[in-house]
Specification:
Rossmann fold; alpha/beta; 3-stranded mixed sheet; single chain
């Protein structure tokens, strides 16, 4: 993964000319930002912060042939400042705790544990503090090994004490789906600009779901396969697809919705294929997109082979819509805000259509006023839905 504007640069390595060796005793190895990012994330640092820290460290040592490991560690602590304690392992070297079970021993990491705790729909800071408390408990006992089930029970207890019984229950429910008998497919539909993709990425991250897909990608692939003469609607945006159709007039709310639905209906073929593949591979999935329209895709065939959880994301405040489109101008040159602002009425018409269908088909609506709040609401809905469908008893999962 390279930073924007750095197309030919791999963040996991540096060019030979810039390479700096890190000296650790008698050993020397090249400094690699990718390795540092991974190390910081394992200690609970968020990806963006870990990446920025590793990048700043690289700039500090650029041009030097050899740097002692101790100097590197000092630089990391200086950059992180008040958060530096999160980058230090609380388990002394030589006293590493091993997680046992399933025939495999893995090193305990509070970073990894705090990641799994996010499924309880709690704040990342709270998740890290719970993981830290669990680590301290294990260290104080002098534990060198801990069984996976024992660790899960300890996490359940500490979550219940610090956060509450519901959070602890949600954690256990989702842990059952880390190795699912049937995949979980979370679908986030909604009009352009409501924040679906950002929510999908964050929800997938917190739940540890590795497969994330946007219907925009499916539509783009279909554009390459189907010419405008065959499928004209998919060659426009959701809000102006009607302008590409000869069968509808160019203006009016009904025409906007007609063009939008024709585009979504075409893309739904690719959506169904993607869902079927996820089922065949028993892989959980988070999918977002404007083409995920309630009632347009028949999800009933999936009900016995997967847990499909559908939500509609909206931004009900018009000013928030405008602000979000303006913000996109600073993120990418390919989405100038005027295209969206000029078509705001059409986008709002499509959103109203989504809300009406959500009401008709009893699909929950997430009003994306606060990103963090929306993420927690989606995760809570996922775990609560799984619990209602399958009647989990938390004690049975320990």
């Amino acid at each position: 993964m390279a930073k924007s504007g750095d197309k030919n640069h791999d963040w996991n390595s540096d060019s030979e000319a810039d390479r700096t060796l890190v000296e650790d005793g008698a050993n020397r190895r090249p400094y690699m930002r990718g390795i540092m990012v991974h190390s910081l994330m394992a200690r609970g640092i968020a990806f963006e912060e870990a990446y920025q820290t590793a990048d700043q460290v690289r700039e500090r040592i650029r041009g030097r042939s050899v740097v002692p490991k101790e100097e590197l560690a000092k630089a990391v602590l200086e950059i992180l400042g008040p958060r530096s304690d999160r980058a230090e392992s609380a388990v002394p070297a030589g006293d590493e705790i091993t997680i046992t079970g399933r025939g495999l021993g893995l090193p305990f990491s509070k970073g990894i544990l705090s990641q799994s705790l996010l499924a309880a729909a709690i704040d990342p800071h709270d998740a890290f503090e719970v993981a830290r408390e669990i680590e301290r408990a294990l260290v104080s006992r002098g534990e060198r090994e801990v069984d996976r089930r024992e660790l899960r029970e300890l996490a359940y207890q500490v979550l219940g004490q610090r956060i509450g019984a519901e959070a602890a229950r949600r954690y256990l429910i989702w842990r059952k789906y880390q190795d699912p008998e049937r995949p979980v497919m979370i679908l986030l539909g909604g009009a352009a600009g409501v924040g679906k993709t950002s929510l999908a990425l964050e929800v997938a991250h917190r739940l540890g779901i590795g497969r994330v897909l946007s219907t925009d990608s499916i539509r783009q692939i279909m554009r390459l396969m189907l010419s405008p003469a065959i499928a004209p609607a998919i060659h426009g945006s959701s809000y102006d697809a009607h302008r590409l159709l000869s069968s509808v007039e160019r203006d009016g709310a009904e025409q906007v919705i007609g063009g939008f639905r024709e585009q979504a209906a075409t893309v739904s073929v690719g959506i169904r294929a993607s869902l079927e593949r996820a089922v065949n591979e028993n892989a959980s999935l988070v999918m977002d997109g404007v083409s995920l329209v309630p009632g347009l895709i028949d999800l009933e065939p999936f009900s016995k082979i997967a847990d499909v959880i559908f939500l509609v994301v909206g931004t009900l405040d018009e000013e928030s819509f405008s602000n979000r489109f303006a913000a996109r101008a600073t993120e990418t040159k390919y989405r100038p805000p005027h295209r969206y602002l000029e078509n705001l009425d059409s986008i709002l018409q499509i959103q109203d259509h989504f809300l009406e269908l959500a009401e008709r088909f009893e699909v929950p609506i997430v009003d994306n006023i606060s990103f963090d709040r929306s993420v927690l609401l989606i995760i809570r809905h996922v775990t609560d839905t799984l619990s209602q469908r399958h009647g989990f008893n938390p004690e049975d999962l320990l």
